[in-house]
Amino acid sequence: MRKVATVCWFQGALADVRRKNRAAEDLLSPEQRAALASARAWWQEGERALDFLAERARHETRIAQIQTLLADLRASRNVSPDTVAEILRRVRGVSANRALNRTLATAEFGRALRDLLYGEGSLPVRLAAFLGTQRAGAQTASQLLHVAFPDRFPLVSPATRAVLTATRAQKNAARRIAIQRYEAGEDTSRGALSLLADFVLYDAARTALGVETFADVNAILWHAREMPAATSRASGRVREEAVPYAVADAVPPEPAERDLLAYIEARVASQGFTYPPLAVRDYYLALKTKPFVILAGLSGTGKTRLTELLAEALTDNLSAQYRLLPVRPDWTDATPLLGFFNLLAGEYVSTPFLDLLTEAGRAENRERAFFVCLDEMNLARVEHYFADALSAMETRARTIPLHAGRTLRIPPNVFVTGSVNVDEATHPFSKKVLDRANTLEFTDVHFGRYAADGKGRARKEPLPDIAPADRQRLFLGARARDVREAQEKLAAIKATYPDRVLAALSSLNGLLAPRGMHFGYRVRDEALMYLANAFDADGRGLLEEKPEQNLAAALDLQIVQKALPRLSGTQEALEPLLAELEAWAGEAYPRTRAKLHKMRRRAAEEGVVTFYEP
């Protein structure tokens, strides 16, 4: 009887497991399962098959590297912040997440991470404790659980979750299944239960896709966003099994932004071009901060060429992702850039600029960077032909009106640079234009050779081998999106940094205000964002190595590039202000002091104060 009872209990338990699995499988509708099948076929077959295998191999190698670090974390009695920082850096390479930054690189977070992954108690209890005590959300918890146990936990992110298109009813059903599957109690927090429900949905997607690993689920969902709208596959198509592959024992570590900058500078130097120290880095940071930059200065100093060199170094695809548009003096409206409606032909006439915006806006290109250079942009008045685009960049919608109610969005992965030569045939910039751009000046000419690190030092270590996709991902992803995020990042590096920057800008504005040359909130906010972008995700300087020196250099550059271009007038009226500003700059801001000294000297010779030098 006891044997019969045991068999009956086992059969009942097995039936219960099967019933729960069927409930999870039934979460997705036939339409959703068909869409997932199309996504798998699109990513794993044809010309993308090799990309799929290579990406899977890289993912597994990264996971193996992280698990070695996690084993050390689990075994160590004392948690090292350096170990935590290295874990976070490598986890960012698995899936982009700006929350995984140096603010979490503490012994306290390391202990909380260890409790989440290896602590006692049920998963809902550990997860609720982690989410309740740390400055990390559900996405961060999901990533950390995945890298520790890749077969048990999926990678949850807003981007891939959106592809699943789960309805409210499906989410509620997933929540009920999660409560049973993970034995969640009534006291389980809402955030923990929501993530557990996501785990159920992703598990249903894995079953529907017919793949073994959550890494494959993540890759298919991620790349499904790139599928053309009309993509479909015949459901009866026979698929060959993937050929087994080997994972290398050791691969180079995930590239950091400092590696990317070193790579870009070396690529520029390899083309035979020399720029002053920090010039390439400054241009890179200015573009990251605001996708509109002005390069001004002496003709023949490589301004236009720099736009091409940077685009080439980032994309390796100039023909598709870069446009050089020479500005003509007869550009009196937006039609040379935005096209026009031809009444006779009954169709809209496009332009290279419009075509590039359209291409950059495609779903499959959202992680690619596109660049435009308006060569000699002040041959015509910028406000006449570029006003619509300038205004669109300032709005959340970023849309440009075209014709008959049609609009076009300027995608956030498009970056515009204007090269400027100042002479009698060109037009001055209004404050509206200057407020919306960083103005970088190129007047110094050096016929000697600069070292490949951009600072006059020879590089001893080999350059990192960074794939074009990774270069663009770093460039597009590693930036402060708004002033709040910028202040938080600066405060995480050192609590006093935001107040110090604001105090310096306020002091400068106090000197400019009596002459009506002070700046507004836009300049303040963009200066803060530039300074935040001048540090990488781990708080290391991108201009100078030491944080204090890096902050000072970035603030000095912002004063020169955002505040000084506004100064114009007669020498008689502005000489007292220039002298006062030069004294204010002192030793703290050497670039500002040097530029003001040049402006004063030229004003004494010509009687006119201007930022630009011919």
Automatic annotation (TrEMBL):
It holds the Pfam family AAA_5. Residues 293-405 form the ATPase dynein-related AAA domain. One of its GO terms (molecular function) is ATP binding. This is 5-methylcytosine-specific restriction related enzyme. It comes from uncultured Armatimonadetes bacterium.
